[in-house]
Amino acid sequence: MAGEYRLLRKLGEGGFGAVYEAEHPLLKRRAAVKVLHRVADKDSDAVLRFISEAQAVNQIRNRHIIDVFSFGQLADGRHFYVMDLLDGEPLDQWLKHEGRVEVAIALQLLTPIAHALDLAHNAGIVHRDLKPQNIFLAWDQSGDTVPKLLDFGMAKLLGESPVHTVSGTPIGTPLYMSPEQARGEKVDRRSDVYALGVLCYEMLTGQLPFVGDTTVAVLMAHIIQTAARPSETCPQVSPLLDAPLLRMLDKDSAQRPNSAGEAIAALRSAAQEAGISLVDGPLRLPRPAPSVSGEQLRGEPDTLLDDSDARLQEERSAPATTLGAARPLWPFGLGLLGLGALLGFVVLRGAAPSTQPEARTSAPAVSAPTLPPTAVSLVPPAATPSPSSVSEPLPSAAPSSSGGAPLRAPDGKKVSKPRPSAAAHIPTDLENPF
Q1: What is the pLDDT of residue 80?
Q2: Which of 66, 84, 102 is the last residue of a domain?
Q3: 3-class DSSP state for residue 75?
Q4: pLDDT for 154-188, tens place per residue?
Q5: Active-site residue numbers?
Q6: How many domains does the chain have?
Q7: Which of 172, 223, 266, 294 is most buried (CB neighbours < 10 A)?
Q8: Residue 119: which CATH number?
Q9: Average pLDDT value over all residues in the chain
Q10: Are residues 72 and 152 in the same domain?
Q11: Out of 32-41, 179-188, 265-274, least confident range
């Protein structure tokens, strides 16, 4: 939301802000909302210039200047203002499909723009960014084409103003920038007259007077080069129009017409002298094809639309194959650590010597049963331990399975316990086999 208006879709974007189509939820009134960019909003000069724009256009009441009727800040602090939603297209788009414009139509279109500039200049306002993108061709209910001057984002109130541009920093569009503006010097109404002359040259000849491969090259061309005569650039233009048009493009601002209205009036006089019939009535141009509702420029995210709706839309538009949020790995690490500790404990327990005391009791001594010779020959004595202690142990006898007293030789010395055979004990998987 921008104040009382809900943002619907993006209409365009410039260097300082983006313009959105909006609607009043209760009144159902459509409007255009311009919001300052996040980056520019951090610049105090840009914010002041933006506020100055809204204040400037409200000081002028003219049909050919866009009307601003609300101003405020978004929840995140960015500034915005609400203006009329126009039905039409910018002049630069119209020039793309129309190409070169006839002298009569060009003067009929630019005459009200020059009058609007004079009103702004008389109010102490210099536009400083006059170009086809900032002139909108609107169609009213009667079918008349009404050119509108908009985007006073570069406007600077003459006299006392809180806006201070850094010295030596040019502000504007290089292709339509006056020499003094390109040098970063102080500008006045004659800078707008120069930009109007560039626009006239482009419309009458179909070409810009100064071009270059880089921004610096274009700026230097405005400062040092002289524009070619319009009649040489385009033979369809009468040579009588050369002098008044080149005067608008003079490098010395003092040699230019004192006002935009004076410059256009000189062009009209030259056109009439060349035999061109001019029309003073309203302009009627073919209406452009209507744009599709909700149409968006590819790759332009609408970060100003309702945040909750935007997040919900992103979740709904996520592909079905997208995996969920990544699970934490620390439970698996703890599990592996615990398993390793358990295995180590079992291994160490199997390798440690037994601490249990040996049994001191033994079964009653009984005489070993006499086996037949065939039985003795089938089972080796070492592989057949006696189930009980013998009455008179011998040094070579195997230990009993129940564990008796240590073996001793006839002289009373201890005899090493023999190692058990493979058949006596088979280690498990968790015991140390070594």
Answers
A1: 87
A2: 84
A3: coil
A4: 666 555 445 444 445 556 689 999 999 999 898 99
A5: 129
A6: 2
A7: 172
A8: 1.10.510.10
A9: 74
A10: no
A11: 32-41
